[in-house]
Amino acid sequence: MASRAQECTLIGVCDGELHPTRHQSSFLTNKVGGQPDWLPVISRQSPLCGHCGAPLAHVVQVYCPLQSSPYHRNLHLFACAGAECSGGLGCWRVLRSQCLEVEVVAAQTARRPAPAQEAPLATTAWCDTADDWGVEESDDGWGGVKEVQEEAAVPEAEASETDVRSRLQGLCLGESLEDIPILHPFFISVEEESDLGGEEDDLLHAQQLLQEYERREGVTVGELEGGGGEEKYEKMSARHGDAVFSRFMKKISPCPQQILRYCRGGDPLFISEPPSDVARAVSACGSCGGSRTFELQLMPALVSVLRRQDGDADAGLEFGTVLVYTCRNSCWTAGSGSAVEEFCFVQTDPDQQLFK
């Protein structure tokens, strides 16, 4: 399903936890944390921090096919969880991957175990047995699905050489999965921004969320008036009390719990004044040399959601907003097997601008 993101802004919020024993995600799933789900033709990527060299944690996965394009398409954002690296130069990376539906089908077929040779029927064997598989699907905002599977045991003797090879694909001998920090996984649900705050109940809920945000962040945002749905906004003398931050807070006030904004080709929402040369800082596509365009950004509310899976500790990531720019042509070389790196622009506070 093609994304409608080019026509409107889509808002992502945290949904239920993606429990590993009850749910199984795929490249069609929009999610926070967990292990990245690569397209079948893409080898497992394990990006490293450009500052400390440590493996980066997987932060967000977005399934975002383009209109009139035959490609499945994913964006994966990674960041360093090191205390000294949070938000630093080279500590964030974004990878784009694509493939055709025919490639997905071919890869899935190749990984399916070959049927076992049928043995002669013994006098004591009266019936055959088979494993049952159950899949439950529900729509995901970017055309993804949430999958629930019950795994059935497969006799070891029936595992084919092709299946074993597929399980080993992309593994790096010099790297252990235990070395990569894993963040608690959550589904991302999606709504159009234009649908937010349209009814009185929505406005009341937004007020409650906004008040919670004010208490947590120590900022003051004007109240939402119920009458015509217009917003009364006070300029703040808070820590980021400039005009850019005021516009930022006003824009997100109907849904301050949003963790992601998606609008390919639209305008990013800066949290502080961007550098005057921001257009030049957005480098050309490293694959085709063409220009890049804004596609999505991570929002401040995501910070409190990111927690390491190996304990209750925070992920150690601090940022204001993370803006992602991708190849305007979404160029792709068939058969490459590797994701394309895109451009990431991190804003923390008004006095600090960081580029990747």
Question: Can you describe this structure?
Answer:
With 356 residues, the protein is α+β, with helices and mostly antiparallel strands. 14% of the residues lie in helices and 21% in strands. It contains 5 helices and 13 strands. It has helices at 101-111, 161-168, 200-217, 243-252, 278-281; strands at 10-17, 31-32, 57-63, 71-79, 92-100, 135-136, 148-149, 186-192, 260-262, 292-298, 321-327, 340-347, 353-355. The strands form 2 sheets. The chain has a 10-stranded antiparallel beta barrel with strand order 1-8-2-3-4-5-12-11-10-9. Strands 6-7 form a two-stranded antiparallel sheet. The longest helix has 18 residues, at 200-217. The chain starts with 9 loop residues before the first strand and ends with a strand.
Summarize the structure.
This protein has helices at 101-111, 161-168, 200-217, 243-252, 278-281; strands at residues 10-17, 31-32, 57-63, 71-79, 92-100, 135-136, 148-149, 186-192, 260-262, 292-298, 321-327, 340-347, 353-355. With 356 residues, the chain is of the alpha+beta class.
Chain-wise SSE layout:
Layout (H helix, E strand, L loop, with lengths): L9 E8 L13 E2 L24 E7 L7 E9 L12 E9 H11 L23 E2 L11 E2 L11 H8 L17 E7 L7 H18 L25 H10 L7 E3 L15 H4 L10 E7 L22 E7 L12 E8 L5 E3 L1
Features:
356 residues, alpha+beta, ten-stranded antiparallel beta barrel, two-stranded antiparallel ribbon, 5 helices, disordered C terminus
Q: Provide a count of the helices.
A: 5
Helix content: 10-25%
Average of per-residue pLDDT values: 76
- Gross morphology is globular
Number of strands: 13
- Derived structural class: alpha+beta
Give me the side-by-side strand order of the main sheet.
Answer: 1-8-2-3-4-5-12-11-10-9
Largest sheet: 10 strands, antiparallel, barrel
As a percent range, the share of strand residues is: 15-25%
Distance between the termini: 31 Å
Unreliable stretches covering 5 or more consecutive residues: 1-5, 120-140, 144-174, 223-240, 351-356
Order of helices and strands: EEEEEHEEHEHHEHEEEE
CA radius of gyration is 23 Å
